[in-house]
Amino acid sequence: MCGIVGIIGEIGQKEAITKQMNDAITHRGPDDEGYFFEHDVALAMRRLSIIDIEHGKQPITSVDGRFTIVFNGEIYNYKILRAGAIEKGYVFQTESDTEVILALYQLEGARMVGKLRGMFAFAIFDRQQKTVFIARDYFGIKPLYYFKQDNAIKAFGSEIKSILHHPQYTKVINDEAVFNYLSFQYNPLPESFFKNIFILAPGHSLTINTTDGSFVEDEYWTFTFNPIAQPYEEVKKTIKDTMADSVAAHMIADVPVGSFLSGGIDSGIIATFASQNIKSEVTGPLSTFTIGFQESNEWDQARELSDAIHSDHQQIVLEWKDYFAALPTIAWHFDEPVADPSAIALYFLAREARKKVKVVLSGEGADELFGGYNIYLEPYARRKLQYIPRAIRRSLHSVITALKLSDRFPKLRGVKFLERSLLTPEEWYIGNATIFTKKEIQTLWTAAPLPSFDVRHYYKKVGQYSDSVKMQYIDINTWLKGDILAKADKMSMANSLEVRVPFLDKEVAAVAATLTDDMKWHDNETKSLLRASIKEVIPESTRLRKKLGFPTPIHSMITAHYQDIETLIMHNPYLKDHCSMDYIQQLLSDHQNVKSPAARKIFALLMFSIWYEQYFIALPRLD
Q1: What pTM value is reported for the model?
Q2: Per-residue pLDDT tens for 473-520?
């Protein structure tokens, strides 16, 4: 696990600039650093030593001197791939998975990416062709950004903060990213919050000409549903075996490996299989970690599972004062505003875990691949309403909207469900979080109108499937990469901890893609077949537990720190120039008067305000 940076083209003081860029991400790899310089390219990396600790130093250059690589991630099938490369005559200098990628590229070219099983973002310089090939893993577990100006790539890196040190880059806020953040709680766009800095999409690669920065982008992989009618018992066994194999593969390391444990089914599956791969007589039991607030937690549920697998369990108590005090540091590590309250808890969880282990396993991706979010059941709950002709349903929706029932009775159960039931998912579902609705943004945003991120092209790709599958596909392509994986990477690497996600394994994804609707959602149960597949593996109460998400009562935090939060938001210069401050003040006042559940909206504005201070007001900082 590392952080990587690169410069394309010749610039003055290139070595010093590259060092600054690399120093900005020391947290990603405090164990080592490495550099490579040519006339029109510079590569650098920060290393968190996990595999071949003694000899896996980067960059690695091929024996013939033609290819040089920097790599962030882990390749879990590297030993198999290494053996194949040796059969073809490749002579290895190290035992590292980094050199395996280099060998495959030298032997097979860009098509080798599809053979990798793991999480990765890497860059390979070809001295002969004068190109840099960069690629990002299938789901976007590892981040990769690039700076593009006049259609030429100038630099790239694991984090935006590195690129900000490039002398040709000028910091400018991308208004469109801010506008969409207000709806999604993260930036769903290909361009980041910083104009001209882009996010390489998951399953994509770039081939960059180092002489002029021109490039070709290629999509080498995308998740595709392929539901197949299969014998129930057979596919149940396949899921169990595939998950056990994935967890075992993800435990490959030359350092101790632990596991996050929330008390839910996803982390429970991971921790249980992980405990079966631990040689406790040699290393001691598996270390597991959970976190919560005194007033809101899942400690008992996590303890039940940890007792069952006999793990060395640590329960972490999070205080609101610490939560609030950490927000500036967290905003800096995120690079872009992310208004997910659970991200802050993840930061503290990773900080404590890092005191015992260097690698942890986590359950991200299970809900997206196996259909775990409760909202996926909603289309089944409203099936009877679908018999009403669509024209009549739309008329009823217009009446309900005109009466403003959801505004007048925000706590009345069923009102929002009824509103959504009269529409298609394409008309209302943009992902797992909607902070400000389109109507609310029209009131909030007073600057020039901007386009909302359009998810309709995703709906078109899965138009033949059920509404639940459509929603699942939206989340795989937006929420998963923009929120779930972003917080997992940034909050763990802020603490020099590697998080691995066995559910987001290419072999697991291949199985999940074949599941039919009744295998995912049955008798008002989410992840039905996944739950059935591990019936003999984890405690029954854990197996049947409904999806809760990390409980974060941010209303309490806002109340406890109201004056500071009000000041941060109301004095933010960007918000003053682009938003209705009267509307924002009303949100704050309503929160104080308990008139409206506006905590998530306030939190989104708060995280943006703190991010703005970190990147546009405070002095530049390094680790």
Answers
A1: 0.93
A2: 999 999 999 999 999 999 999 999 999 999 999 999 999 999 999 999
Domains and CATH numbers, the chain: 2-219 (3.60.20.10), 232-372+475-543 (3.40.50.620), 374-431 (no CATH), 553-623 (no CATH)
The predicted pLDDT at position 407 comes to 58
Asked if residue 435 lies in contact with residue 187, where contact means CB atoms within 8 angstroms, the answer is no
The secondary structure of residue 27, as a DSSP letter, is G
Place of tokens 């929330």: 262
Burial of 247 (0-12, 13-18, 19+ CB in 10 A): buried
CA distance 104 to 85: 7
Sign of CA dihedral 229, 232, 237, 242: positive
Q: Cα 371 to the chain's mean position, in Å?
A: 17
**Running DSSP on this structure, what letter comes out for residue 538?**
S
Whole-angstrom CA distances from 221 to 139, 253, 465 are: 9, 26, 21
Annotated active-site residue in 2, 208, 243, 529: 2
Token pair in block for residue 163: 């690129």
Please give the Cα distance from 422 to 431 (Å, whole number). Answer: 18
Rounded CA-CA distance 427/107 in Å is 48
- The question of whether 579 is a catalytic residue gets the answer no
The answer to whether the CB of 273 falls within 8 A of the CB of 244 is yes
Window from 49-63, 189-203, 239-253 with minimum mean pLDDT: 49-63
- Per mean pLDDT, which range of 130-144, 277-291, 349-363, 458-472 is the poorest? 277-291
Residue 9 has pLDDT above 80, yes or no: yes
SS3 (DSSP) at 330: helix
Closest CA to 221 of 119, 115, 138: 138
What pLDDT band is residue 394 in, cutting at 50, 70 and 90? Answer: low
Q: What pLDDT does residue 264 have? A: 87
CA angle 614/620/623 to nearest 5° reads: 95
Q: Between vectors from CA 343 to CA 5 and to CA 501, what angle results, nearest 5°? A: 65
DSSP assignment letter at 614: I
- Above 70 in pLDDT, residue 143? yes
Q: Give 156-206 as a DSSP string.
A: EESSHHHHTTSTT----B-HHHHHHHHHHSS--SSB-SBTTEEEPPTTEEE
pLDDT above 90 for 315: yes
The position carrying tokens 């595709």 is: 224
